[in-house]
């Protein structure tokens, strides 16, 4: 079950990808299948060992194309063990709501992302998450649990403050919000409640079979009660520094001699420019993207 929509977040073979706070590895596996050079990082050593096993199984089964690579490692999101500009793509999915210093995490992600690189951030959506908190204290008052609920504009502001340029947002997993409301109502750890069991079976069937009916239902529900809020952004390129000595050269250059107006010059001054000689060049097709 992917939260990041790769039709909105293009990934090319050979892209260097960091899945930060990878958890069970769902996004890392998809990037590996798409031919990326993936690093899956999490502070949970047990989950990292499982992710490493799945990477090895995928390689053995030939699920990843030639040139793809995958590494699973433990690490601290606030102190990433990578040089600046190490990755083309960074994904952080359902992680920032757990971390007190979310601005510090964003700063680290921006540091290791190359200029022009892309980042995807997903967090629980404000409305559905607020219902979960109202129904159950145990849902969020646990060690490592959710410590904040983001409003969409608040997350976008933090992404911009970190130096990124958002280019798209959407909501995901509309079918999953009712499941978590049921979990919170009957007890977060109570998997034996019949409504919870029944809805879980529905979700598993949906994930495995992907029937058209539930796909259409989720598409309709996502804008209303989608469980996750997703932001896509890019890291802008740095402005190019002027060539060394360019200013001094310009200051030293002599001023052009004043033009001597002749009868011929005066006549041509009002003539039309040649076709294509406009001083304002058209932007390239991709300049605004």
UniProtKB/TrEMBL annotation:
<dbReference type="Pfam" id="PF08241">
    <property type="entry name" value="Methyltransf_11"/>
</dbReference>
<feature type="domain" description="Methyltransferase type 11">
    <location>
        <begin position="18"/>
        <end position="120"/>
    </location>
</feature>
<dbReference type="GO" id="GO:0032259">
    <property type="term" value="P:methylation"/>
</dbReference>
<dbReference type="InterPro" id="IPR013216">
    <property type="entry name" value="Methyltransf_11"/>
</dbReference>
<protein>
    <submittedName>
        <fullName>Methyltransferase</fullName>
    </submittedName>
</protein>
<keyword id="KW-0489">Methyltransferase</keyword>
<feature type="region of interest" description="Disordered">
    <location>
        <begin position="242"/>
        <end position="289"/>
    </location>
</feature>
<dbReference type="GO" id="GO:0008168">
    <property type="term" value="F:methyltransferase activity"/>
</dbReference>
<feature type="compositionally biased region" description="Low complexity">
    <location>
        <begin position="276"/>
        <end position="289"/>
    </location>
</feature>
<feature type="compositionally biased region" description="Low complexity">
    <location>
        <begin position="242"/>
        <end position="269"/>
    </location>
</feature>
<dbReference type="InterPro" id="IPR029063">
    <property type="entry name" value="SAM-dependent_MTases_sf"/>
</dbReference>
<keyword id="KW-0808">Transferase</keyword>
């Amino acid at each position: 079950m992917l939260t990041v929509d790769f039709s909105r977040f293009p990934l090319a073979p050979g892209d260097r990808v960091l899945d930060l706070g990878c958890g069970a590895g769902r996004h890392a596996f998809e990037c590996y299948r798409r031919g990326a050079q993936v690093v899956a990082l999490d502070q949970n050593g047990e989950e990292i060992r499982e992710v490493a096993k799945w990477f090895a199984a995928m390689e053995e089964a030939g699920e990843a194309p030639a040139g793809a690579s995958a590494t699973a490692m433990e690490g601290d999101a606030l102190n990433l063990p990578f040089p600046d500009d190490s990755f083309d793509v960074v994904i952080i999915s359902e992680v920032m709501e757990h971390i007190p210093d979310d601005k510090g995490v964003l700063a680290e992600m921006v540091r290791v992302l190359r200029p022009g690189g892309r980042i995807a951030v997903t967090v629980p959506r404000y409305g559905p998450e607020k219902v979960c908190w109202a129904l159950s204290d145990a849902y969020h008052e646990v060690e490592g649990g959710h410590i904040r609920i983001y409003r969409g504009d608040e997350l976008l502001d933090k992404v911009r403050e970190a130096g990124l340029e958002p280019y798209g947002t959407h909501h995901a997993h509309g079918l999953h919000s009712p499941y978590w409301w049921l979990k919170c109502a009957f007890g977060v750890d109570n998997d034996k409640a019949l409504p919870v069991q029944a809805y879980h079976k529905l979700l598993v069937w949906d994930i495995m079979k992907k029937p058209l009916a539930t796909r259409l239902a989720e598409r309709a529900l996502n804008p209303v009660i989608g469980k996750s809020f997703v932001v896509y952004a890019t890291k802008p390129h740095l402005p190019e520094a002027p060539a060394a000595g360019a200013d001094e050269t310009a200051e030293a250059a002599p001023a052009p001699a004043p033009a001597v107006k002749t009868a011929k010059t005066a006549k041509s001054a009002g003539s039309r420019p040649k076709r294509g000689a406009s001083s304002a060049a058209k932007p390239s097709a991709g300049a605004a993207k």
